[in-house]
User: Fold this.
Amino acid sequence: MVSKPILTIVVPCYNEEEVLPETVFRLSDVLESLIADELVAPNSTVLFVDDGSKDATWSLIEQFHDANPFVTGLKLAKNAGHQSALLAGLLKAKSYSDCVVSIDADLQDDTAVIREFLVKFHEGFDIVYGIRQDRSADTFFKRATAQGFYKLMTSLGVKIHYNHADFRLMSKRTLDNLEKFQEVNLFLRGLVPLLGFPSTQVYYDRKERFAGESKYPLRKMLAFAFDGITSFSVTPIRFVTVMGFLLFALSVVAALYAILGKLLGANVTGWTSLVLSVWFIGGVQLLALGLIGEYIGKIYKEVKQRPLFVIEKELTEHAEILESVPLAGSQPATARR
Assistant:
């Protein structure tokens, strides 16, 4: 085994004052155990990223930072969204870490699995995906829609790990390469598999949220799913093209039928069918324009190159002293095997 790697656990937070004390306690306990077993370096830390919370989340992070040597923090100037907050933490942590684990603050992901992540990292894997094998704690609706989303993404040709969210371990070199993806429309679950590098999976049971309420209501889940689909696949646009050809073919058939009826002297009234067809075609056109507009909107966001997040405050002095220390696990994965 190589020298002990420096681990940073990145936790994006938005209005998590109810669950934060328990999260700090459990992650600190995990780090203490990993340090005692010499799986990570003693100067490993937890980095909480406050995504513009409106409650006392940041005040709690400051208090824990003063009392707990493991706790560090970033405060974003405004709510940038879960994916941007997570990326902010990952990019900050990679400057002084050999490996980084990302996990949500709600404790639905099993913190004990982080140990298995580190074991796999020592075996030479650069990316370790946490895969939910049991989602019985989720409601039927959430479980069904989430699994349907993963299947849909796979059918559209997107390389994504089934039942994986953002609970994963990444090595420093994978994060260095992730930073090269200058995308504004972030969907990390799709971006990370594009990196390549040796990877593996660890399975765990998903738990109920420890406290507070979900920050992903139906509206946000649908928006997130649509962003993922349109950011990684042009299949919806191709579907619109195919539908256009089909409607054109149907219109030709309808025209021939009308002409034939006229020549044969049949009484072609067709008022109802005409109105229905106009409404149907009009609806399809609006749908197609909206879909095309969505892709154009994404291009508009990309070309402006606005920053994904703005950091207002940092509480990372526990970790910044490590930046001058050579990273223990910065060598390629093949060298760690």
Summary: Confidence is low (pLDDT under 50) at residues 320-337. The chain is about 50% helix and 15% strand. Residues 184 and 301 are 7 Å apart (CA to CA).
